[in-house]
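Reviewers asked in the last cycle whether our approach scales beyond single polypeptides. To address this, we selected a multi-component target totalling 984 residues and predicted its structure end to end. The input consisted of the following lines:
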Amino acid sequence: MFRRKQKQSDFNSEVEAHIALEADRLKEQGLSDKDAQASARRAFGNVTQAQERFYESGRWRWWDNLRQDVRFAVRSLRRDRGLAFVAILILGIGIGANTAVFSVVDAILLRPLPFHEPQSLAWVAGGDGTGGLSSVSFQVVGFEELQRHAHSFQELTSYMPFFGDSDYTLTGRGQPQLISGVMVAENFFQTLGVRPAIGRLFTTDECQKGGRPAALLDYAFWRREFNANPGIVGKTVTLNKQAVTVVGVLPPSFDFGSFFSPGLEMDVFVPAVMDNIRGWGNTLAILGRLKPGVPVAQAQSEARILIHEIKAKNPNDFYLDTATVTGLRDHISGKLRRSLIVLWCAVGFILLIACVNLSNMMLARSAARGKEFAMRLALGAGRGRLIRQLLAEGAVLAGAGVALGLAIAIAVTRLLAHQGSVALPLLNSVHLDGTAIAWTIFIAVAAAVLFGFAPAIRIFSTNLQEALKDAGPGMSEGRKHDRMRKVLLVSEVALACMLLIGAGLLLRSFLGILNVDLGFQPSRAAVIRVRYDDDNNAARRGAVLQQILQRVTALPGMESAGITDMLPLGRNRSWGFAPKGKVYPKGESPDAFVQVVTPGYFRAMGIRLLEGRDFNWQDTSKSESVFIINQTGARRYWPGEDPVGRMSQGPGPGVNRVIGVVSDVSETTVEDSAVPEIYVPATQNDPEGAELVVRTKLPPDTLSSSVMKTLREINPGQPATEFRPLQYLVDHANSPRQFVVMLVTSFALLGLLLASLGIYAVISYSVTRRTQEIGIRMALGAQKRDVLRMVVGQGIMLVLTGVVIGIVGGLALSRSLMSLLYGVKPTDPATFISVSFILVAVALAACYLPARRAAKVDPLIALRYE
Amino acid sequence: MSTQEEKERLELLQGTLDLLILRTLIFGPRHGQGIARAIQQTSEDELLVEHGALYPALQRLESRGWISAEWGISSNNRKARFYKLTRTGRKQLARETVKWKRLTTAIGRVLSSEASEG
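The resulting structure, written as C-alpha cells, was:
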C-alpha cells in the first residue's frame, strides 16, 4: 500500500498554524502580541528539530540521499577528469560494440521474420539441400505434386531462383534501365502473409498462360523510380519490351533480396506461369506454411515419401531422389548462426576486458582515497552509505558510457543497414529497437555493478585505525588489494589472449581464402551486362556476338573480351549429360554446372586451357555440338582417360564432342572444393543473358565509357549498366566471412589495446606507490638497470601468467571455431606463438614506460617524498 | 501564565503520547494545537506535552492509518490541519486502553505491596 505522505512544505505550514493558534489563545489570556508569539514558540519547542524528525521519517530522505550521492559522484569524478574520460570512453566503446553486434544478431537470428506467423514457414529443398541451385530446386511437376499431396502443409508456394542481378529491362522512361525481377507463384505473397501496401496481388487469371501481364513493385524501387507515386498502380510499364500492368506495391517490410538473395535488391515481381515453364528442368524453389502443430521432421518424412512417388511416376524425366525440409529461418540464417555467435562472444569479451580494466582503475583510485574513506567512517558515515556512493560513481560512469555507447551503436547500425556490399541476409533490417536498448541497459548495469563493486569491497575490510595511521605511500599497502589488482590484470591479459587467438585463427583462414586459386584472374578485368537483339535465331546470335566482341576488342587498351551467360560465384545452374560407353551407378549420372560462352571467354577471364582447343566461330548449329569440361569433371567422368575427343549425349543438342579441358573455377563459393563444370558455345546453345568480360591493359575503369559507347552503337537499346570489376564478384562472395573476420579482428585489437592500458595503469600505479622504496633501493646502491629490471620483471611475470592461462583457454575454445576455419587447425601453432609474442611485446612496452619513470627517480627527492 | 510555568509537570512516558492523542480525538476532529491543549487541560496541567513532539507522533499515527487529516478552518478563522480518528484507530484505542489499564493496575499492585513490606 503506497500512502502518500505529507509534504515538507505542508508540514511547515502546519507548524506555523499551530504556533499562530497557540499565540491567539495566549493573547485571549491577555498577553501582548509579542509575548504571545514568543511563548507559543517556546511551548512548541525546537521547530527545526521537529522538522528534522518529520523529514527523517519520510521517504524524501532516501531520494535526497540518492540525489546527493549522484551529485557527489559527479563532483568527485570531475576532480579525476582524465580517469573519468578514459573510463567513459572504454565503456562507451564496449557498450556501443555490444549493442551494435546485438542488433545484428537480433536482426539475423532472433527477431521473428517479418511474415505472418513466421515460425510455421518452412523451406523445401531438393536433394539433401546442398549443391548449386539446380540441385535444390524442383520441376513444375514436382511442385504441383507436392502442392496436391503434402498434407503437412497448409500451403506450398514457389519462386524461380534463377534470377540474376538486373535481368529485366525497363524502357519507355528515359534511358533504358536494367532492373532485377523474380517470378513468383500465384500464392507466394499469400503464403508468407504479405499484403500489398497499395493495390492488389496477382489474380489467378494473371498467372495463367495468356493472362494479362502484371507486375508488383518493390517498395524501395517504387519510391526511387516512381517517386512514390501511387498513381502508377493500374498503369502499364514496358518490361523486356512487353507492356505490363503494375497491379500493386509491396510493403516496405518485404525485402525479397534480404531474405532469399542477400546483397541483391529485387525491383519487380512477376507471376510465374507454370504452363510456360512446365517442360524446363529444376526451376522452382519451394517454401510453404506448415499446418498448425506439424513439426518440420514430419513434413520432412512426408516430402521424402512424396518425392519417391513422383519419381516412380516419372522415372525418366524427374531429376530428384529426395527432398529436405527446414524451418525458413534456418534456411535464411542457419549457416550464419555460428559466425554470429562467435562475433557475439568476441564482443562480450571486449566488455569483460573493459570491465576488468575499469575495476582495476577504480580500485587504484579507491586505494588512493583510502584515507578519505577512513576519515569519513571515523566521522560517522555509514559503511552502507560509502558503498552506495561508490556504486553511484559507477552508475554515473555507466550512464555516460551508455550515452556514448548508444551514439556509437546508432551510427554503426545505420551504416550496416544502408550498406550494400555485405551479402548477409536481413542485414538491412538492422536497427536499434527496444530489445537492443534493454540489452544495453542490462549490460551497463551489470558493468556498473562489476566495476563499482571491486572498490566497494575494500570498504568492508578497511580497518579505521590502520588506514588513518597509514602515513601514505611510504607504508606498504595491504597485500590483499595488491593481489586483487594482480588477479584482475592476469584475467584481463588472459581474456585478450583468447580473443587474439580466435581472431588470429579466423584471420589466417580468411587470408587463406584470399589466396585460393580461383581458377580465373580477377585483376585487370571487368564485367558489363550486355543486351543484344538476335530474334531468337542462333545463327544471327553468332554474328551479333562476334560483332560485339570484335568491336570491343579493337578498342585501344583492350586485351581480350568474351561473353558468358552466368559468371562464377553468382547464380548457377547444372545440366546433365551422358558420356558414350559409360555406365554410372544410379543417382550418379553426370551433371555439371554449365556456362554458355563465346570464343575468347577463357582468355578474358584468365581461365587456363589445359588441353584441346577453345571454341571458335566455326562451331555453329550446323557443325558438330561441342563442349569443354573442367579438370575435376574430366577426372570424375573419364577417370584415367584423356577426355578430349570423347563423345557424350548432351549437354548441348544431340551428340557432343569434348574439345578441351580447362582449369577448375570456384563456382558457388571460394572455399568449397572444385566441382564438375562444363562450357558450351553460345552459337549452339541458348544463353540466358550476356555478361561481357573484358581484360584490359589499362585500369578497366578508364575503358568503361568507350565500351559503353561501342555497345550503344551496336544496339541503341543497350541500357546504362554498371561496369563492375571482376574482383567485385570475389569480394561479394567473401563478404559475409570478411564481415565477421574484420569485426572479430578489430575487437581483438581493441582487447589488446585495453589490456595494454590496464598493464600500464597497474604498473604505473605500483611505481608511484613504491617511489620511496625505489629511492631507498637506489640510495643503497641499486642501479637504474636494476630498478628497470625489477619493475618490468614484475609486470612481465603477471603478463606471462595471463598469456599461459589465455593459451589454455584458447585451446579449449578454439575447437568451437572449427567449422569457421579454412586451411587452419584450431590448434595452429603459428597463431598461438605469434599471439603470445604480440601480447608479450605490447606488455613490455606498457611496462617499460612506467619502469623508465621509476629508474629516473632521484633518491634524494624520493626519500623526502611526502 | 507565570503560575503555570512554576508548576513542575510530569514528563510523558515513552509511547503514551499516541494513546493520549487517540483518546483526545474520540470527541471529534481537532487540530494539533487543540490536541495539545486538550491533553494539558484534561490532565489538569499535570502532563507536559512538548508541542513540537506532537507532530512526529501525528505523522506516525497517520501513516499507520489510525487517524486521518484534512485542512480546515479553526473557530478563530485560522487555517489548520484537523485530525480525525479512523475506524481502525478507534479499535486500536480500545485495545491500548485495556492494555494501559492492566499495566497501571499491575504496577500499582507491585508498588503498594512493596510499601507494605517496607
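The radius of gyration of chain A is 37 Å. We regard this as preliminary and will revisit it once experimental data from Aim 1 are available.
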